[in-house]
Specification:
Layout: H1 12-16, E1 23-26, E2 29-32, H2 33-55, E3 61-63, E4 69-71, H3 80-85, H4 146-163, H5 166-174, H6 184-194, H7 198-211, H8 218-230, H9 232-238
Antiparallel strand pairs: 1-2, 3-4
Helix pairs in contact: 4-5, 4-6, 6-7, 6-8
Subcellular location: Cytoplasm; Nucleus
GO molecular function, one term: RNA binding
Protein name: Programmed cell death protein 4
């Protein structure tokens, strides 16, 4: 028995098993020591690669988990993150351009130059109104006030003294909304004629005669001359011969 003993720290069975892998118990499981060592080396290599890739981002290539060489910035297609952020078509078609030329999104006007057809009225629409079909829209012209009246009609009458066409004056006055200022047309015409020549007074008489019944009524003409007689003291300041004329 003494001869069979040796100075080796392990028994004979352990020496015979020296060529076999050592096993370490981790969490109750026996794992070969070589596997643990390889796992540590691989983990250390991966940490070094990640550190270098983040430091040299955009330069050179990196190595994937499978050992394949990949370009920096390219996400592995098999990763969920790569599929989520990938804007390319799933079918592999398309050039990455916006859909419908940029006219298919929410709240957009459409493609440039697009002409929309007139929408047909839906009779079954709850907001449908029969009167809308027969509506006639007209341009509303606001009536002239006293200041705007004199500023607008003065150049018209002065031009009449040059061309002498009463029809043109009548058409221009019809386009205006004189409102309650109709009676002021003869008042302004006579006031301007008093400051002019005798020919201007004769033309003013003809103008009032032609406008009576079309633009102004007889009542408006009577009201205008009543106002002229009341304002005669003021007219004398500009035209001393106003009472005789």
């Amino acid at each position: 028995e003494l001869e069979n003993l040796s100075d080796a720290p392990f028994s004979g069975d352990e020496e015979n098993g020296g060529s076999e892998e050592r096993k370490t118990e981790i969490n109750g499981n026996w794992i070969p020591a070589t596997s643990i060592t390889e796992a540590k080396i691989n983990a250390k290599a991966k940490r070094r690669l990640r550190k270098n890739s983040s430091r040299d981002s955009g330069r050179g290539d990196s190595v994937s988990d499978n050992g394949e060489t990949l370009k920096i910035g390219v996400v592995v297609p098999t990763s969920p993150k790569g599929k989520l952020l990938d804007r390319r078509s799933r079918s592999g078609k398309g050039r990455g351009l916006p859909k419908k030329g940029g006219a298919g999104g929410k709240g957009v006007w459409g493609t440039p130059g697009q002409v929309y057809d007139v929408e047909e009225v839906d009779i079954k629409d709850p907001n449908y109104d029969d009167d809308q079909e027969n509506c006639v829209y007209e341009t509303v012209v606001l009536p002239l006030d006293e200041r705007a009246f004199e500023k607008t009609l003065t150049p018209i009458i002065q031009e009449y003294f040059e061309h002498g066409d009463t029809n043109e004056v009548s058409e221009m006055l019809k386009d205006l909304n004189l409102g309650e200022m109709k009676y002021s047309v003869p008042v302004l015409a006579v006031s301007l004629a008093l400051e002019g020549k005798a020919s201007h007074r004769e033309m003013t008489s003809k103008l009032i005669s032609d406008l009576c019944g079309t633009v102004v009524s007889k009542t408006d003409v009577e009201k205008s001359f009543d106002r002229l007689l009341k304002e005669l003291p003021e007219l004398v300041l500009d035209s001393p011969r106003a009472p005789q004329v």
